[in-house]
Amino acid sequence: MAMSADLESVPLHIVPGRAEIDLPAAQRAVADLLTALGRDPHSAHLADTPRRVADAYAEMLTPREFELTTFPNDEGYDELVLAKDIPVQSLCEHHLLPFTGVAHVGYLPGERILGLSKLARVVELFARDFQVQERLTKQVADWLQDHLAPKGVGVVIEAEHQCMSLRGVRATGSRTVTSSLHGTLRENPSSRQEFFALTGLTP
Q1: Is-annotated flag, keyword Nucleotide-binding (predicted)?
Q2: I need a labelling partner for 109 at 20 to 30 A (CA). Which of 15, 74, 79, 192 fits?
Q3: Which domains are delineated in the chain?
């Protein structure tokens, strides 16, 4: 089907500056790690573990390709658009352990509106990397502000970090909340309050 002339589509493939994954080298590294941890990587139960681990990390670190589709805001819609509870799965860059949770992503439309599924795609684009939650939150907000040019953007991420729940303090169930705001959602108190209220948080 031909794409409408008034629809803007930008293909997204790889995050700039992110190197390709060397699977054979990753497998060797996992085998070396097993040996360093006192395990035999050639034993019957661990023989295929290096491949499995390398493939798992490659999957968790590779965002899926998607087309960023935007549409003219012909109706002049000027109220908040919010996608709540977008699943977030990423890897803590300090311990290489997962952190998981949800993102709430909203924006006040300018001249264009965004296909709703693309809000989740943008979250995944940056989540599939070695991350800290603060940077991930800001990257999603900055990217939407730069590519969509809305009147305002708000991103909140709530996540549990296995580097806190499985080791160290072992604070199982503890969730970290981060936010990043642009434009009207940052500068206008009532818009800011509306955004946080709709996410279920208090400003």
Answers
A1: yes
A2: 15
A3: 23-60 (no CATH), 68-199 (3.30.1130.10)
147 given a catalytic annotation = no
Q: Is 158 a catalytic residue?
A: no
Mean pLDDT over the full length of the chain: 90
CA angle 105, 190, 158 (to 5 degrees): 30
**Which tokens go with 21?**
């994954």
193 catalytic? Reply is no
Can you spell out the DSSP letters for 27-65? HHHHHHHHHHTT--TTSTTTTTHHHHHHHHHHHHT-PPP
92 tagged catalytic: yes
Cβ–Cβ < 8 Å for 110, 151: yes
Sheet (strand 176-183) strand order = 130-131, 81-92, 98-108, 152-161, 176-183
pLDDT value of position 35: 98
Whether 95 sits among the annotated catalytic residues: the reply is yes
| 27, 145, 161, 182: the active-site residue | 161
Q: Mean of the pLDDT values across residues 145-166?
A: 94
Is-contact 112 149, C-beta < 8 A?
yes
Taking only the tens place, the pLDDT of each residue in 66-99 is 888 889 999 999 999 999 999 999 999 999 999 9
Q: Exactly one of 65, 93, 111, 134 is catalytic; which is it?
A: 93
Is 92 a known ligand-binding residue? yes
Annotation-wise, does 104 bind a ligand? no
